[in-house]
Amino acid sequence: xQETQELRAVxxxxxxxxxxxxxxFLHNYCENVTVVATASNATEARTALAATNPxxxxxxxxxxxxxxxxxxxxIEQRTFQVVFVTAYQEYAIKAIKAGxxxxxxxxxxxxxxxxxxxxxxxxxxxxxxxxxxxxxxxIVMQTLAANTKxxxxxxxxxxxxxxxIPTNHIIRCESDNTYTTFFLHDGKKILVCxxxxxxxxxxxxxxxxxxxxxxxxxxxHVHQVHRTDGWHIITTDNARVEIARRRVEDVLAQLNIQ
Length: 258
Prior knowledge:
With about 260 residues, the protein is an alpha/beta fold. The chain has 2 domains: about 5-150, 3-Layer(aba) Sandwich (Rossmann fold), CATH 3.40.50.2300; about 155-255, CATH 2.40.50.1020. It contains 8 helices and 15 strands. The strands form 4 sheets. The protein has a 5-stranded parallel sheet, with helices on both faces. Strands 10-9-8-12-11 form a 5-stranded antiparallel sheet, with no helix packed on it. Strands 13-14-15 form a 3-stranded antiparallel sheet, with no helix packed on it.
């Protein structure tokens, strides 16, 4: 007779009601699953994972400061299986599928959660190695970057869902703590409750450069470079963007200025 598999789970979500709902679903509708820790951000998640050594991590993607992908990228040895719980954009879901990792869309459906738990139990019998798990996450990261370049656009969250913005329409992004404002070629501004670091990573390789702690600039929209009271870029929307002193050399090199 096959032994019953007990799963020890960690749930990570920056929204308290999201954590409460998933913990409730796992407790009431999924047999032999114990939630051993919860976390509301990346730092807490890493602490919980190190302390509990779970079998499975239920991980929200869209969190402030560091997202779910950042959490996984920062953990060298992953002995747990990963399930993303997300309302994220389509190309992120494609990336997750490409890495053969599981996911649940918000709002979580109980039947889908049950099916997910059964898949996890089945996959555990395959004895995936740590290198296999690392390879899966690497594929996700590579696919995310490739899709941003291939699609030529990124998805930003709005009150009604997501808006897809062609990357060549973005002049610059400006940071204000955990908020980022997109300045577009038609004068439109979009304020997003996500840190600029996430968009720097998504736009890497698409002609954008972090010229200052608070500024990410599309180099195709650089109109002038001034050296008055320090180095500055003048963008095509006539904004004057400071270049951080330690970034001047790299910026000038990218702009082919000798």
